[in-house]
Each structure stands twice: as C-alpha cells, then as structure tokens.
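Sequence design from tokenized structure. All designs in this work follow the same two-part layout: the structure record, then the generated sequence. An example of the structure record is given first.
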C-alpha cells in the first residue's frame, strides 16, 4: 500500500510523543504522503508541535472529558472519520484503538499483552503488535514500520530548531557572555521524579566549583516555580527556569555541552541531540525510559547504581526495590525514597571526570 494520508495516535506522555519523530520521518521518506496528522492529549501539544512533517494536530482533553465527554468524542470523530488511508495507533488504550478504527480502514496498532483485553483489538486491527514494557519506548514506537516492511533506523531524531529560536537563545547567551555551558534540569512533570532540595543544593554547590556555567532550566508550573524560588545563589549557576518556551529550550539544549538532571522530557531531547547525559533516575522503568544512545543504538537494560553506555550515564539508588515502576513509594505520587539514596558526590565525580577528560 501507498497511503496518501496518515493519522498517528499517541495518547500518552510527552516522552512518547517526542520519541515518535523517527517513525514519522521514516513514514514520510517511504511514502511521501500528502499529509501526516497526529492525535495527542492536549497536555503534550507543545512538544507535538515541534515534530517534523506534521500537517495538523488533533487533541483530546481530559478536562473536556470530565465536563462534556460525549461532545468532545463527537467533535474528534467528525474530524477524523474515514479521512485517512492509514492510521497508526501507538497507544493500547480502548479509546485510541477506536479512534484509529474510525479514522481508517487500514489500521496498525499496539495491543496489551493481556489476551482478555486484546482479543477484540487483534480481530479488528489490520496489523497489531504487543506493547512491550521491557523494550525501550523508541523501539515500541518503531514497530509499525516492521508491520509495513519498512527498514527501521534505530536512531532518535532530534527536534528541528527554527532560526528565530536559535537567534533568540544565542542573543541571550551573548548578553551573559556565555560560550560553553551545561544544562541542569532539576524538575519533572511529577513530584515523585524529583531530587530533594537538600540533595539538589549539595549537588549545585559541588557543580559551582567547576567554574563552568551551569544553566538551570524548567517550565512554568508550580513545581518549577518552587524550585526556582529555592535555587541557591551561586556564581556559576544561571537561572533560566520559566524563561524559555519549549522551542527555545530545544535550541538552548542544542548549544549545550551536556545535560545533568532528572528523568523527564528534557533528558530525551538532549539524548536525541547526542549530548553528554547525566541522568538521575528514581522508580521509573529503565528498560523503557532510560536515555537512548544514538551512538550505540541502545538504552540501559539493567538496574545499577552507576552505569555508562555511549554518551549516557545513569544514576540509581542501590536498593532492592529499584526500579519499582511505581509513581513514588506505595504509589503516593510524591516521595521516592530511592532518589534520596543517590549521593550528589557520586554524580559530581562522574561529571568532574568527564570535564577533565573533555577539557571544556
């Protein structure tokens, strides 16, 4: 088949959306379609808008679902119903599968490993593949290419950067007389993924001794604002939290020498740009969400207190529960004790050694 219109459905997180870029590029190069559209959750729209080759983006809102569920469903179905030659669903949820089936007669989609949940999906989908929690999200997202017999490239595509954003960030750096620098990203979307203030401050004091500009980054939400207000005043720590758009952040990351910080979208952006990564991991499933190394075309497979592969170093706690995959201890969504058991000194020593060898 040679589809002229393609819909890709990704009703998951920012990372899932970012790590669909290589799939989209392969589809564009293989089919040269008239249009590739997306259907994503509205809280991932900003990162979806950075993806290349996309004509338009449909959004689903959980807020609208609470208020006017069926009205939203009608609107989305009206926009996508039989508008596409091919629909690809990267999310195993019932809703996203139904959207894909309504959008096109030829549907490829992932399904749960649970046969009781997946039987009807396998029956209705033209081609299906199992969602594998032991496989990196990039590789899960590339599975539709195997279904289409398209050669798979296991490299994560970096987000494009507009000239406007590149100039904006470069001017800001010029004003501060910064040439080479490292990004420090202390926040994440969820509290349970964040290093404590005490340990964060200890790490920043150590990093400050390197006499290299460390640019702290973050967004505009309450978690980021709280971190911004608590940042220690240190000579080499420059605060950019809440001061860049996602597009400007991508430009800033591209100019950086490396990334230090939490397991979050910004880490994956830096990895896609082949930056040196120092990632601090809590309870997150490492198999699926560790930084992808384009250099080696692989990710971390084992839980270890300290491991380096290619351009990536990952720090975890040495605890029997790591990594549990829960949203914090007992799924409380707030505290992950494993993060409190990662020493700032261990992180610093790895960064210091890298800088000495690199002669930044």
């Amino acid at each position: 088949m040679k589809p002229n219109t393609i819909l890709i459905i990704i009703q998951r997180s920012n990372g899932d959306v970012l790590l669909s870029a290589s799939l989209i590029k392969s589809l564009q190069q293989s089919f040269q379609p008239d249009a590739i559209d997306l259907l994503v959750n509205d809280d991932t729209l900003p990162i979806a808008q950075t993806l290349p080759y996309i004509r338009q983006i449909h959004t689903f809102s959980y807020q609208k679902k609470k208020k006017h569920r069926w009205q939203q469903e009608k609107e989305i179905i009206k926009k996508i119903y039989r508008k596409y030659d091919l629909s690809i669903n990267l999310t195993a949820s019932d809703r996203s599968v139904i959207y894909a089936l309504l959008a096109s007669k030829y549907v490829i989609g992932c399904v749960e490993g649970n046969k009781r949940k997946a039987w009807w999906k396998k029956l209705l989908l033209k081609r299906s593949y199992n969602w594998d929690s032991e496989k990196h999200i990039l590789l899960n997202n590339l599975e539709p290419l195997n279904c289409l017999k398209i050669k798979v490239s296991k490299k994560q595509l970096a987000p494009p950067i507009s000239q406007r954003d590149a100039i904006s960030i470069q001017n800001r750096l010029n004003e501060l007389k910064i040439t080479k620098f490292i990004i420090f990203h202390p926040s994440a979307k969820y509290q349970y993924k964040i290093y404590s203030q005490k340990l964060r401050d200890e790490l920043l004091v150590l990093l400050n001794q390197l006499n290299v500009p460390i640019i702290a980054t973050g967004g505009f939400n309450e978690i980021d604002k709280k971190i911004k207000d608590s940042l220690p005043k240190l000579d080499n720590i420059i605060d950019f939290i809440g001061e860049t758009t996602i597009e400007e952040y991508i430009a800033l990351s591209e100019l950086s020498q490396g990334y230090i910080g939490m397991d979050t979208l910004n880490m994956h952006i830096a990895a896609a740009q082949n930056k040196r990564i120092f990632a601090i991991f809590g309870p997150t499933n490492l198999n699926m969400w560790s930084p992808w190394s384009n250099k080696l075309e692989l990710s971390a497979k084992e839980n270890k207190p300290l491991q380096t592969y290619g351009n990536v170093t990952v720090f975890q706690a040495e605890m029997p529960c790591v990594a549990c995959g829960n949203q914090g201890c007992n799924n409380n969504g707030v505290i992950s004790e494993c993060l409190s058991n990662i020493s700032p000194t261990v992180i610093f020593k790895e960064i210091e050694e890298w800088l000495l060898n690199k002669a930044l």
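The chain has 14 helices and 13 strands. We note this feature because it recurs in several other targets discussed in the main text.
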